[in-house]
Task: inverse folding
């Protein structure tokens, strides 16, 4: 068998149903599906059983330990030459596995990954969140876009690796957040061939509202510092941009507030631009996001929602990054994360 899909899941039977349904339509059929239930209170066993006649599917249930360890659990039981890790909240297009097969036939790879997109059925908020996580103007294009400020690191929502390489490297670490980047770094450090497969994309639902999205990206900011402590060379300029954005916007707003106070107690005209001027770069950035997202999504509403999505993404990541930097790099504390139960449960 050439391919094994590994899907960790926690309390998402409906989303697993969508994913499995999309896998039944693959034009390449040489694969199995390994679903690992991570101690869910709402299991998807019945959903998986419903696909027993359509897919070579294997269902396992284990105590909750996080997605990384659940992927390792599935990898140990998988039979494919290549292991393809997917998040349970993705849906794959009909030609996904054909695109992977074509790329591997054209040029071998030890590990690979693909980008993600928003499906037409997603809510406007989900589309806005998807935009904020994939746009060059918010993430620097490091999540699989053609324009990027750093090399491509496969992410666990759409990641493939040779089974022998996976086992040699020990799979995912016990990091609760950032474990996929940790694995990608180890893949590169081992000298493995790692490539982006642009046509092997998936539809990725991500978070369903801005509150959950903030918690996700806040933990991602923390994970970046945790990764830096393990691999100092992994921290690049692009990873600092959300922190710079967060601090910069706060300073601009503070400057405007000072100008407003001076206008109140001194000559209004003298301090007007100190009050109004700092808002100009913020407004221009909002306009850029609105126009780019509206065009990309062909929707003014999604374009409008992409503005708060971008700020949540950048501020959440930036605040998590600063919090972890202060606690780990300044105060010398051990690895930590936040919103653990809320994020996973």
Result:
């Amino acid at each position: 068998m050439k391919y094994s899909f590994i899907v960790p899941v926690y309390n998402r039977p409906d989303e697993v149903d969508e994913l499995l349904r999309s896998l039944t339509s693959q034009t390449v059929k040489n694969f199995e599906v390994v679903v690992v239930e991570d101690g869910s209170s709402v299991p998807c066993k019945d959903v998986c059983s419903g696909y027993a006649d359509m897919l070579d599917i294997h269902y396992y249930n284990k105590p909750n330990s996080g997605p990384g360890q659940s992927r390792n659990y599935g990898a140990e039981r998988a039979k494919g030459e290549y292991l393809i890790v997917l998040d349970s909240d993705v849906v794959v297009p009909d030609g996904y596995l054909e695109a992977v097969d074509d790329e591997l036939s054209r040029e071998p790879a030890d590990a690979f990954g693909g980008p993600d997109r928003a499906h037409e059925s997603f809510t406007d908020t989900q589309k806005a969140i998807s935009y904020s996580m994939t746009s060059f103007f918010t993430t620097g294009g490091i999540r699989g876009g053609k324009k990027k400020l750093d090399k491509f690191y496969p992410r666990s929502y759409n990641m493939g690796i040779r089974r022998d390489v996976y086992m040699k490297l020990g799979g995912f670490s016990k990091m609760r957040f950032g474990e996929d980047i940790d694995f990608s770094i180890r893949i590169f450090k081992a000298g493995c061939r790692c490539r982006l497969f642009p046509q092997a994309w998936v539809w990725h639902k991500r978070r369903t509202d801005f509150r959950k999205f903030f918690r996700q990206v806040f933990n991602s900011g923390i994970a970046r510092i945790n990764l830096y402590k393990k691999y100092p060379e992994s921290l690049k300029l692009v990873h600092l941009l959300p922190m710079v954005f967060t601090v910069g916007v706060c300073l601009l707003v503070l400057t405007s507030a000072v100008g407003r106070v001076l206008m109140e107690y001194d000559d209004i005209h003298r301090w007007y631009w100190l009050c109004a001027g700092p808002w100009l770069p913020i407004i221009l950035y909002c306009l850029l996001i609105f126009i780019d997202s509206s065009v990309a999504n062909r929707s003014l509403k999604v374009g409008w929602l992409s503005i708060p999505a971008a700020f949540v993404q950048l501020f959440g990541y930036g605040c998590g990054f600063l919090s972890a930097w202060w606690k780990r790099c300044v105060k010398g504390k051990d690895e930590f994360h936040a919103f653990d139960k809320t994020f996973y449960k």
User: Anything to note?
Assistant: The chain has two domains: 3-210, 234-338. Strands lie at 3-9, 31-38, 57-62, 82-86, 90-91, 111-113, 116-117, 158-162, 194-196, 202-204. The first strand starts at residue 3 and ends at 9. The mean pLDDT is 90.
